[in-house]
Each structure stands twice: as C-alpha cells, then as structure tokens.
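Summarise this fold before class:
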Amino acid sequence: MDKRQEIARPDPKRIDEIIASYQNQKWPLIPLLQEIQEEFGYVPPEAINPIALALQLFP
C-alpha cells in the first residue's frame, strides 16, 4: 500500500502576490522565502525562478 500523499500544486498567482509584496524592500530574500514556506508548508520549486527574477538573483 502506497502511503504517499499527493501535494497540491501551489497557486502561481498567490506566489506572484507574495513576491510583489517584497519588491521594494531591502534584503527581502529570507523573509520572502519564509512567507512562501508559511503559506504552502514548503518552498515549491515553481517559486524559485519567479523569486530569482523578481530579486535579480541567479536561481
């Protein structure tokens, strides 16, 4: 019997909303990642590139 549970895909619009709320802050990476993790229970791989692009970081 397979006991793994399927994790629901995070809403890309919600990820974008969270990222946008940190756009004008200085050093936003850690608080942004913390909020994403709090919202979804983990940092989804789908969030990495949008975060990197928004903060002008290399993914």
